[in-house]
Amino acid sequence: MRTDPTRPLSLLARSALASLLALVAFLGVTGFALDRAYYEGTLTAERDRLQSYFYAYLAGFDVRRDGTLIPPDAPPQPDFDRPGSGLYAVVTDSRGVRWASRSARGRDLPFTGDLAPGQVDFRGPLSSMAMGHVFVLSEGVAWDIPHRAPLRLTLHIAESDQAFERQIGAYRRTLALWLLGLGVALLAMQQMLLRWSLSPLSRVRQELRRVQRGESSALSSDYPRELSGLTRGLNTIIQSERETLERQRHTLADLAHSLKTPLAVIRARFESGADDAPPPQVCHDVLEQVRRMDSIIAYQLSRAAAKGRQTFAAPVPVAAHAEALVQGLEKVHAVRRILCEFDIDPEARFFGPEGDLLELLGNLTENGFKWARSRVLLSVHRLLDATALREGLEIVVEDDGPGIPPERVERLLQRGVRGDERVQGHGIGLAIVVDLVHAYRAEMGVDRSAALGGARFSLRFPPIR
Predict the structure, then answer these.
(1) Residues in contact with 27: Cβ distance below 8 Å, sequence separation at least 6, in sequence order
(2) What CATH number does residue 415 fall under?
(3) Structurally, how many domains does the chain consist of?
(4) Angle, vertex CA 37, rays to CA 31 and CA 40, nearest 5
(5) Distance of CA 443 to the CA centre of its chain
């Protein structure tokens, strides 16, 4: 039995998938929000730091009466005096660079033009051909000079983005690790909660499997309120199926038994040979029809004993029943010295009433004994499927008799043929086998035995999911 590729996901898988998607979306949005908040905070800290350098430099500068710029004796941070340190300061006016820190000398920095006094411009990270990316803070200032126009200058403070990127990178790695760990922990907790919440459904499934395997007769009643109605309904269905099958079997048996008595009286009357009996030809015709009716009733009685496939049936071991049947048949056919060989899996089980198994094995092996010359082979094997509720079963009976002509096989397995038309040449027993095969939705094959040369009857009960 093949697995359906479109089989829907289980409730646990659906819940786990939904939780995973929701958790990924939530953690993704949370991570993005935290990252942006930290980035903006770090960027603001960078701007504030450059602003503090600006004020420190502004406090240290002075201007002579002739407009000459006097730089501070010492920078606010030693890196301003170290070339290539990543921290730079430049003063410009409308004619170009008026002053540059030692670290900025000979550097091509992305500074803007002159700014109006009090105007502030913060940008970055900006690309610099020789120094990578930098943050730049520029602000315009104006120094008052006695008896002269104010001196308008623009002070630029720049810093490499390497420290900024290292800080952001470290934060992002830490954030990713924490969010990943949190996501795994939340998902594991969610799975535990889901399994605990869905455990009653899992228990229903397990108990239903035990009932279907025949290991239990009904579902238990200690379930939550939401499932108690379901389990009561399933128990009602199980009990109803058993009662219905039993009632139908008894009804058919009662009907067949009730007809046998009047038929026996009719037969006795016509076979008595009394003076007022009908003519011999009439007696012969009536007795022939009575025998036919009696055969049909015997057939229906056998059908009544065979219950057919049941969804909830206890497994019946095959080996012991097969051996007992064959021992009895060997005694019946002792004069013909028929030998029956076995090839039976000791673990093979039949999921159905014991009467059905006896009907199948008994009629097939009896048919084999009837037509065999000296040998009959009975084989029973399991059809295993790890995903099935019940394992399958294969029963094969072979003999070394004349076999069955191929043109008669189709008629032998034909459905809907009744009475003598159906069982001609093979007796009532084989018709019962065909009925049971259809009742169990099994498969029946008739061909020639490769091992013994006679007829080969095979019954295949597929695994049930």
Answers:
(1) 179, 182, 183
(2) 3.30.565.10
(3) 3
(4) 135
(5) 29
Dihedral sign of CA atoms 340, 345, 350, 355 in order: positive
**pTM (2 decimals)?**
0.52
The parent domain of residue 325 ranges over 315-461
Kindly give the residue spans of alpha helices, DSSP state H, lying in 333-405. 354-371
* DSSP track, 414-436: -SS--HHHHHTTTHHHHHHHHHH
> 53 and 121, same structural domain?
yes
Nearest to 213 by CA among 395, 10, 349: 349
pLDDT tens across 284-328, in order?
666 666 666 766 666 566 555 555 555 556 688 999 889 888 888
CATH label of the domain that carries residue 299:
1.10.287
Residues 109 and 172 placed together within one structural domain of the fold: yes
pLDDT under 50: residue ranges of the chain: 1-3, 415-426
* Domain-terminating residue out of 305, 335, 350: 305
Query: CA–CA separation, 378 vs 327, rounded Å?
Result: 13
Claim to verify: residue 246 and residue 182 sit in the same structural domain: no
Q: Do 270 and 393 belong to one domain? A: no
φ, ψ of residue 145 to 5 degrees: the values are: -120, 125
Which residue blocks in 272-401 are alpha helix, DSSP H?
280-305, 318-332, 354-371
Q: Please give the DSSP secondary-structure letter assigned to residue 5.
A: T
pLDDT 10s digits, 376-427: 999 999 998 877 777 889 999 999 998 888 888 777 665 444 333 433 444 5
Measured between alpha carbons, how far is 462 from 465 in angstroms, rounded to an integer? Answer: 10
